[in-house]
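Box 3.1 A note on notation
Throughout this textbook, protein chains are presented in two layers. The first layer is the amino acid sequence; the second is a token string describing backbone geometry. Keep the layers aligned when reading.
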Amino acid sequence: MFLLNNTTMSTEKIIWDNGSWRLKQIDVNLANGQTRSKTVVDHPGSVVLVPLLADNILLIKQFRPALGQTILELPAGTCHWGEDITACAHRELREETGYRAAQLTPLGLLWPAPGVSNETMHLFLATQLTPDPLPPDDDEQIELTPIPQQNIISRLLTERWPDAKTIAGLLRTAHHLNWLT
């Protein structure tokens, strides 16, 4: 963690906990001697999966209540507190796509909203897929939507596709698999 100009955090208190994540109030001691109280989301981390099946990327359509609409996105999910990231990735892939990956290749990390949350998203390329579904979460209705790999970059550049984790995951996959050359 980088704290600039002698900025420190003095106290923190959980003000709400829904089991999946918590809302915390943190007191930040600034270099000028002042203290500011910040409210942040304390998050156990999440995974974002880029499932590659034959020449298709498996995306999902899912209703997102915060947006009030159904969006096209990469499969993703929140880890349980203390859950191994790789175990979470395997579980979420099976829940959201119905496939198991023989190989998960890490593609890096991203912070989706560092101004309000400590969530770290772990990106994975999922390959060598075989059917092996788990029941989806009871509040999820997901439609699996394969997109041909050769269409991914043009769709990223021409369509209105504002989901940051999907853009990052697809671009990192394209770089990893040399689709950008």
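The mean pLDDT is 93. The first helix runs from residue 85 to 97.
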